[in-house]
Amino acid sequence: MTEDRRRAPLSSELAQRVVDLIAPTISHNINVMDEHGTIIACMEPGRVGSLHRGAQRVIAERRSVLVTVPEPGTSDRPGANEPLMIDGELRGVVGVTGNPREVEDLARVVALTVQLLIAQEHEQDAVSRRHTEARDLVAALSSGTTRPDDARARLAAAGLQPPWSLALWAAGDPRPGGGVAPPPTAESAAARVNGDGARRAAVLHGALWIIGHDRAPAADSPGLPAASRHTRTPATDDVDALMAYAEESRALCRYAGLIPRIERAEPWSREIAVSVAHLPRRTLTRMSARTASLSGAQRRTVSAMASAGSMREAADAVFVHRNTLLQRVDRIRSATGLDIRRPDHLTTVHMCLYAEAALGISHIPPG
């Protein structure tokens, strides 16, 4: 609990909501007074704002007070008044109107009920604040316009100390046009994360984001479907690097196909995916046309060549003889005009396959 919350005055709006909720269940009027004895919630609107002498005695003496004969000139009514304790502090008074001896026990029950309801509302408000804070934090980090000092201050205000990490989840099926959609139950997953305070989560740009301290959570930690898409970053002490990761992640949210699926062990290059995500859609269409005729075996060959250190390693990766691999390389050259034995041509073909994935024509090149 923060110092601000301990010092915040009891909300009259919240107190009235609680009174309106409880009052229909009993046959007596309920009053809620603040820490000064002023009535802030009541079933008789005309009494709101007036001082309650019995409540002032409760606050001064820190005990229950029965009002049998109200003082002349006051708005008090006969009844029982109980201290309202919230988080161990005397924050106000709850009064139940009626014969003091008859409503004395009822007043204790009502005071406890009011206390529990207000505490529950405070907790919900705290989670709501953390959710808003998380959304603002993700928006700031991914905007590309936030200054490092401001980003660092926001992270510190959220209780997130370096090293920081970032993880992203999206639904397995893209939106029409290839955009990212949040996984099912993403909002509830974000609420659970924000409830413990150790990390911050928000649904933004069509994805679930989680920012935390140290290593990013594993793909299955939020309990999202296995068909979801997921990427996470290494931990970093550098706020500029964290903002770069966030800006990259926002770019990836343009095309769901550029984010790997959890359920598939696909080789994936973040750098290529981010580079492709920044390209105009017409450029993606032009690039994807260049590799449209490649077979599955040829696509796997491209991926193997991109990750292997030699032709022999690439051949072993796709379980073929070196001569078979060379034949595939020649066919790829015939289809695309690019010789993937050349690093620059290999990079171009690889990016064309990522362009296909961005447009939903195919998946990320398999290994």
From TrEMBL:
Annotated PucR C-terminal helix-turn-helix domain residues: 305-354
InterPro entries cross-referenced by the UniProt entry: CdaR-like_regulators, Diacid_rec, PucR_C-HTH_dom, PucR_C-HTH_sf
Domain of life assignment: Bacteria
All residue ranges annotated as the Putative sugar diacid recognition domain in the record: 10-140
Protein name: Carbohydrate diacid regulator
Organism: Nocardiopsis metallicus
